[in-house]
Amino acid sequence: MVEVVKPAGNFVRKALVVAEIEARKLRHDPTELVTRAIQPILWLLVFGEVINQARLIPTPGLTYLQFLAPGILAQSVLFISIFYGLATIWERDLGIVQKLLTTTAPRTALVAGKALSAGIRAISQMVIIYVLAIAIGVGMDLSPLSIIIVAILVLLGAAIFATLSLIIACLVRTQERFMGIGQMITMPLFFASNAIYPIALMPDWLKAVAYGNPLTYQVDALRDLMITGGTTEFGIVLDLAILFVFAIALVLIGGRLYPRVAR
Asked: Are 70 and 226 in contact, with CB atoms under 8 Å apart?
């Protein structure tokens, strides 16, 4: 039993060390929090208010702003995380990746630490969107349990998309190709989800894509937990299970591919 616990403890400790190093960057550059807040403000105050007034998208049981707020949080998590692989390419050029690979830390721990650091940045967006939503009158569920599970969902979503980004960086290995692929997949992930409109409004082919999109399950769970009177289409347990499977699978793949970025 001790032999099993000790490696697991070392894995977690080394992943936390990598995450802490990444989190320092945010502390040294807090202006990033301000710039990151601009996009959700525009989506909620401009797009959300217009659609809410026009009543163009049916959202039974919820106002459109209530429907939209969780989707914008998920969108913010996606946009923060999906370009995380670019930092990995920069670190390779600076020799940091090569130094990390010479340590005894498991490759999966390095990837998990990167994923966790993306989650730390995403939590800051969660705070901003909660404050903004409350300010514009969106009925938010502020119970401690709901907020804790929302934070877990934010961490999971950030881990999924940051690790996907790292995998892309390992495969393409140049900034130009990475930026092209990152931009190519970001908006399809967002629009092929239930972030800004219900799945019921989608054509059948887009529904099929949405059901395979992890962002869909993150938004579904957030909509139930963040909003007073919110509902879930798939169920919180299924949403969390799917997100955990995505996160674990991508971390394992990322750990396998991570040494390639240094070549």
From this structure: yes
